[in-house]
Amino acid sequence: MPVVDPSLNPLTDADPAEVEPTRRPRRRPARTDLLALGAYVLLGVFVCLNYWGDVNGRVSSHLPTDHSWFEWLFAHGAYSVRHLENPLFTARQNAPDGVNMMANTSLLGVTLPLAPLTMLLGPQVMYALYLGAALAATAGTGYWMLSRHLVRSRAAAFVGGAFLGFAPGIIHHANGQPNFVSNFLLPLIVVRVLTLAEPGRWRRNGLVLGALVAYQIFINEEMLLLTALACLVIVLAYAVQRPRATRAAAGTFLAGLGVAGGLALVLTAYPIWFQFNGPQSYRGLQGGVFHNWGEDLVAFVTFARDTWAGNPEVEKTIGLTEQNTWFGWPLVLLSLVALVLLVRRSLAARIVAVLIVVFSVAAIGPWVRFNGVETDIRGPWSYVSDDLPLVEMMMPTRLTLVVAAAVGVLLALTWDAAYRQGRPVADRPRVPAQRAGDAAPAASADEPAAPVAARRRWLRPVGYAAVALAVLPLFPRPLPAQQIDPPPHFISAGGWRPYVPAGRTLVPVPIPSNVHGLPTLRWSALTGQEFPVPGGYFIGPNELGEGVFGAPNRPTSSLIYSTMDKGAVPALTDENRRQAIEDLRFWRASVVVLGAHPRETVLRELVTGLIGPPQRVDDVWVWDVRPLVG
């Protein structure tokens, strides 16, 4: 198995069985490291710049509902800590049934530790603050992995780390999905997997890996699964190319892996059980909704929307759900050339090539798509049942996030190869002197004689320029943001409190859902979830136990949504009024509240027709329904 050690640097292509491993000395962060981290922090601030213009009144223009959901999650973390409640479940949304937080993208590994800051700053500020920090932290751990374990040049590590943290696909998910930019543990997990075979350290390495895996489960399980698949491919690719070293280290590697798996299982057994067997758990998604979302072949050479070279109009042509591989043609061209030049002499480049090919093909989906058109050519997922565990929840296009990570590593390898051109052999990574009795190692293909090296100095600026020209068009733009109305003063000032006793709910109109009611979902988040609401934005079970988005519609919520869509109040019957009272009893409602809304007039007319005239209290319409529901 791979051993991450300077003497086993993959760039040298030395066989680990033929060299003496040396222990890497501890390094303190150098000035270069601090400058790199500072640059990543500034870039994270830049990406979130539009939010900071009015952090309390702006949400993502592309995924405003997701943005509000994650604000709600920060409020959930703070509420759970403040009230010492089980964070794996909440009754503050989808009342009275509640939401299984482990079965949703709950980000508990972030929202719980940051709960004190959320209480102090509010969920809107925490969202924007964390989003930029997560991008920078991912770039930082990527830089650490590359600079300490793979490349000689700190500039190469900086370029690779920047791509790992700010790749086009990651920036795309930053539009409302911070769980997909919270990848700062993943480089550490990869390094720990590759160090499991270190002699004499399998217990320590296994314990560290198990703790990292357990923590990542509470950040993003999907990205952990992708990382595990990538590590499997890396280990297999290494084993094929280094069979002797693999056989020698297999026992130690497997022992460390067993320790890691055992610790991770102990730490997460109950939460994982709760995810699949706790209240409001589900089995798969209705209709395998994600299974058909494959990657378009043209997307690989297209510039992403939120980059300086990107054009938002191209989305209308390709019509993709996500932009995980929108690398642009210069980067694709550079990657192909770099692989051709590096694979012969670099083990790391060969493994990167395998990752790119395997996960690019796997991401195609059931049918090959080309420039927005689904062809009749079968893709790999057409041969995979969408009923298989885990597979049923996977979106094929997201497999290309592994490709993005591999491209980031390839950029670092390419820059480092250019850096080493023209340098004296003594300045380059070397295989240590052989042990007594060993044959002298053969000269590496990467280490030409000094006169040859001098003649190749021109390759260094050419390599630097090629990498710069490929990545500069992908420099991210500030994430687009849109203005959103603040909660009514009646909500933010606590005017609702006399109307909502303990054990009862506030029913906002429209009722929150994954399609409607974005502003009313924020009422709950921005008041610290002090009152429970029906409906919401989450995944929960339907009557068959399959996962569906949002709460199953009741007659009254369906009537509200159809009235909003049509802009007119239908003819109401006594049955509609009876169902409304029954639904209010089910929701344990004590008050119905309608604030400012584009459809305010028709919604007020509808609710009045169902349960009677409202009162004007502060800046909202209020229906006190306690006399109706008992």
Instruction: Give the percentage of residues in beta strands.
Output: 5-15%
Structural class determined from secondary elements:
alpha+beta
List the total number of helices. 24
Shape: elongated
- Helix fraction bin: 40-55%
Strand order across the largest sheet: 7-10-12-11
**Largest sheet report:** 4 strands, mixed
Query: Rg to the nearest angstrom?
Result: 27 Å
Compute the number of strand runs: 12
Which blocks of ≥5 consecutive residues have pLDDT under 50?
Answer: 1-25, 425-450
Mean pLDDT: 87
Q: How far is it from the N-terminal to the C-terminal residue, by CA?
A: 68 Å
Could you explain how this protein is built, in words?
By secondary structure, the protein is of the alpha+beta class. The chain contains 24 helices and twelve strands. The strands form five sheets. It has a four-stranded mixed β-sheet with strand order 7-10-12-11. Strands 1-6 form a two-stranded antiparallel sheet. The N and C termini lie far apart (68 Å).
